[in-house]
Amino acid sequence: MLRKIVLLVLLLSTPAVWQSTLATEQTVEVEKQATPQQQVTAFYQWYMTNIERLPSADPEDQKTFEKYISQETLNLLNKINNSEDPLDADYYLSAQDYGDDWGTEIEVLRESINGTNAEVDIRLGKANDFQQTLYISLRLEHNVWKIHRIQDKVTDIDLSAWDEPK
């Protein structure tokens, strides 16, 4: 009789244990997910460290771009850059030139999250030096924040002009 009670208790408590374990794993997964500002900062640290050799055909570089940039944006930039009228500025910097410290001096000015969309404003460069302020929109793509659009106050490169009508 005691054996039946023990088995019954184990059977009844097992789903609760499983649910607790699953909830813990999901919490860990959410905690591991980078925030929009972490994604943006990590991208610009990588990009500015490697800017002299980019763009490259190295598959690892392509994987890194795919890690940080939305697939829609990568496809659109590829289309634009292979057209008769490619961009005349670096899209990721909204500039033709850059400061030596832009990869190490990254200041997050603002982060706003609204569901599956986010905005992060950053300033690249030291104060009282050559700086660039960027307004970056991100989208949640396969549970990862990805950079979708980048703008600055001056050049305002508008990729929507290249979008095909739906």
What do you see in this structure?
The protein has four helices and four strands; from the N terminus they run ααααββββ. It has helices at residues 2-32, 36-50, 59-68, 71-81, and strands at 106-114, 117-124, 132-141, 144-151. It is globular, with a radius of gyration of 22 Å.
What is this structure's SSE topology?
Elements: H1 2-32, H2 36-50, H3 59-68, H4 71-81, E1 106-114, E2 117-124, E3 132-141, E4 144-151
Antiparallel strand pairs: 1-2, 2-3, 3-4
Overall geometry comes to: globular
- What is the number of helical segments per DSSP (H or I, 4+ residues)? 4
Poorly predicted ranges (pLDDT <50, ≥5 residues)?
6-11, 14-31
What would the average pLDDT be, to the nearest integer? Answer: 81
Largest sheet: 4 strands, antiparallel
Order of helices and strands: HHHHEEEE
Main sheet: strand order: 1-2-3-4
Structural class: alpha+beta
Oligomeric composition of the shown chains:
single chain
Taking Cα atoms only, what radius of gyration do you get, to the nearest Å? Answer: 22 Å
Q: Helix content range of the residues, please?
A: 40-55%
Short structural description:
The chain contains four helices and four strands, in the order H-H-H-H-E-E-E-E. It is of the alpha+beta class.
Any descriptors?
40% helix; four-stranded antiparallel sheet; alpha+beta; 4 helices; 166 residues; globular
